[in-house]
Write a structure and sequence with these properties.
This protein has 10 helices and 8 strands. The protein is of the alpha/beta class. It has one domain: TIM Barrel. Helix 1 links the parallel strand 1 and strand 2. Helix 1 crosses helix 2. The chain starts with a strand and ends with a helix.
């Protein structure tokens, strides 16, 4: 088993579900990103618009004002991969111009008709995430007959659209979208069935850090900051099933857990 890379979250938003408003200045966000690198992050994911349940859209100018100086500042101090977490092709274009190397889109390039073409033009890696509905309404009674198969097929459809527009297959990543238009039962089924997504041949990004599905299992975890144990359990299970990137808030702890898991797997394979 190849140990997955760790993507550290840099939320430059006032209203993200877990750490909204904590990185209130450009300097604080840059310092946080560099700290995550020191803790073991292989990739940094910078976002300026919250996608938590019920979140309201952010104007393009505001989103650019939030993320661009952070990306530029990180790039000036670090040469590793930087992801821009946005649904706007215009923001992705500006971010890649400033040094971002990946576009992480929770709408799987579906928010704007031009998005697939822009992704092809930019030539960066692209994360296609599954979401039923939109952030404002996605948790209003989501329904699936077979959540694993439906999420897989929907993402493969979006991948085909991206490739038809000119995005190279090797640039495409798939993300099942844990918590995005899914009930706790849907989320558990997706984690348990993550192998079905891995088997498509596209690399898989998995993000369940501090998410509410943990509270559904442990009702005492009402505070997102109290969900580290559940986050690590989910990360390790995703790694076991072949996820290639784990997106997390708690980088040091996740990186350590993945190292120990990989060492144990290596030792068992020698016996």
């Amino acid at each position: 088993m190849i140990r997955p890379r760790v993507m550290g979250i840099v939320n430059v938003t006032p209203d993200s579900f877990s750490d909204g408003g904590r990185l209130a200045t450009v300097e604080a966000a840059i310092a946080h990103g560099l700290r995550l690198v020191e803790q073991g992050a292989d990739i940094l994911d910078v976002g300026g618009e919250s996608t938590r349940p019920g979140a309201e859209p952010v104007a393009e100018a505001e989103e650019l004002a939030r993320v661009m100086p952070v990306i530029a500042g990180l790039r000036a101090r670090w040469n590793g991969p930087i992801s821009i977490d946005t649904i706007k092709s215009s923001v992705a274009r500006e971010a890649v111009g400033a040094g971002a190397t990946m576009w992480n889109d929770v709408t799987a390039l579906g928010a704007h008709p031009e998005s697939p073409g822009v992704a092809a033009e930019l030539g960066c890696d692209v994360v296609l995430m599954h979401m039923q509905g939109e952030p404002r309404t996605m948790q209003a009674n989501p329904r699936y007959d077979d959540v694993v198969a439906e999420v897989r097929d929907a993402l493969l459809h979006r991948a085909e659209i991206a490739m038809t527009a000119g995005v190279k297959r090797e640039r495409i990543w798939l993300d099942p979208g844990i918590g995005f238009g899914k009930t706790p039962a849907h989320n558990l089924a997706l984690v348990a069935g993550l192998g079905a997504l891995v088997e498509t041949g596209f690399p898989v990004l998995f993000g369940a850090s501090r998410k509410r599905m943990i509270q559904a299992i442990d009702p005492s975890a009402t505070d997102p900051m109290a969900r580290l144990g559940g986050s690590l359990a989910l990360a390790l299970e995703a790694a076991r099933q072949g996820a290639a990137i784990i997106r997390v808030h708690d980088v040091r702890e996740t990186a350590q857990a993945l190292k120990v898991q990989a060492a144990l797997r290596a030792e068992s394979s020698l016996e």
